[in-house]
Design a protein that fits this description.
Butyryl-CoA Dehydrogenase, subunit A, domain 2; Butyryl-CoA Dehydrogenase, subunit A, domain 3; seven-stranded mixed β-sheet; 9 strands; globular; acyl-CoA dehydrogenase activity; Acyl-CoA_Oxase/DH_mid-dom_sf; oxidoreductase
């Protein structure tokens, strides 16, 4: 692994940082999260054109930039620094890779150029709280089911005109505003139960979407209700969804880890700046040894998390094609490794520690709603609720590595 960034990667980071500094300051951030869409459409347009961020990791033949998940992760490190609310995670990290890996030629040709251009946003609807299970981040997803009859979820049944979906999904990232929904649904009844993915237009008849109150307002979530909604099966009838979801999980974790590292680095940066200005007993509090030690611990944690996140992003980009998902899949873990979850655990822990220290060292103002420190702490806590918790991410990594007696071998 070469840890040096290329000139192209440096340029991506620099350009994004400059744009977000101008367009996503504290005031713009609060205005965006309070808007009906939960993000600034003008900022999303600027990220899409001319930067091409939504299609950064998509092939050029589908209108993408042709970079790898490494570049996408580095870009998300910058969006994480600013806590920029956007459909990037839901559209480009969760949905687009699944369409690329599992979709038919016609589906890829129709959907991917729109996703790459940012003209269409997408959301992955997986029955809560099963997103982390579906992505195999905290346990094996072989027993995952997208629905369970009276227990809830989404059921799919055949009709003369295709497939009809009925059910409800909560905590769908950007589900209230996405133009395309990728819904995990339960088919085949009890005896032949199977999870499949279906494409649903966001404004299709029978779709009812309600924005939910979320701990982290920069990641808007929605409840999606489906009442006999017409849908299209993603891919072929024999496509195996679970291996593709499990392989996607490592990629998602690597991107989220880089995003958390960016947020943690920004919290540390702001805290160091503040303790150099705030005076107590006639001197800046940053000159006190105890404060230096606390910030040094945060620095070490953030840098260690950055190393782990970069390695996870490199490993995801180096992944060979998946045998389970076909020769064109881009989702398989590299050389049997699943390091994304472990990197995500370390990054979330570092972000939570950096945000907590930032709140403490900012004194009374750090606890106020008006200050930005609480937003970073909520990002760490919100991501842990959606994709963790940390101890289960590490437990799964240890299980996959075969560290437990009787644990499964690396997959």
């Amino acid at each position: 692994m070469d840890t040096r960034l290329t000139a192209e990667q440096d340029e991506i980071r620099r350009t994004l940082r400059e744009l977000l500094h101008k367009r996503c300051g504290p005031a713009e951030l609060r205005t965006a999260v309070d808007s009906p869409a939960g993000h600034d459409p003008l900022l999303w347009s600027a990220l899409a054109d001319p930067l091409g961020l939504p299609g950064l990791a998509l092939p050029e033949r589908y209108g993408g930039v042709g970079c790898s998940v490494t570049e996408l992760a580095l870009a998300c490190e910058e969006t994480g620094r600013a806590l920029a609310p956007s459909p990037l995670l839901a559209t480009s990290v969760l949905v687009a890779p699944l369409v690329l890996a599992l979709g038919t030629d016609a589906q890829r040709a129709e959907l991917l150029p729109r996703l790459a251009a940012g003209s269409c946003t997408a959301a992955l609807a997986v029955t809560a709280p099963s997103l982390t299970t579906a992505l195999a981040l905290t346990c094996d997803n072989e027993a995952f089911s997208a629905g369970g009859g009276r227990a809830g979820g989404v059921q799919a049944r055949r009709a003369e005109s295709g497939w009809l979906l009925y059910g409800q999904v909560d905590q769908v990232l950007d589900g209230h505003s996405a133009g395309l929904l990728l819904v995990a649904a339960h088919t085949g009844g009890f005896a032949r139960a199977r999870t499949r993915l279906f494409l649903v237009a966001g404004d299709a008849p029978g779709v009812v979407r309600t924005r939910q109150t979320a701990l982290d307002a920069t990641r808007p979530q929605a409840r999606v209700q489906l009442r006999d909604v017409r849908s299209e099966l993603l891919g072929e009838e024999e496509a195996d969804v679970l291996p593709a979801l499990a392989a996607l999980g490592d990629r998602v974790a690597a991107v989220l880890a880089c995003e958390a590292v960016g947020a943690g680095d920004r919290v540390l940066e702001r805290t160091v700046e503040y303790v150099g200005q705030r005076e107590q007993f006639g001197r800046p509090i940053g000159s006190f040894q105890a404060v230096k030690h606390r910030l040094a611990d945060v620095y070490v944690a953030v840098q260690a998390a950055r190393s782990a996140a970069y390695y996870a992003a490199w490993a995801a980009a180096s992944a060979p094609p998946s045998a389970a998902s076909g020769p064109r899949s881009t989702l398989a873990p590299a050389h049997g490794e699943r390091v994304g979850g472990l990197a995500l655990a370390q990054a979330l822990e570092a972000l939570r520690g950096a945000a907590a220290e930032g709140i403490q060292l900012h004194g009374g103002i750090g606890f106020t709603w008006e200050h930005e420190a609480q937003l970073y702490f909520k990002r760490a806590a919100g991501d842990e609720l959606l994709f963790g918790p940390v101890h289960r991410l590490r437990d799964r990594a240890a299980e996959v590595a075969g560290l437990f007696a009787g644990g499964e071998a690396a997959v």
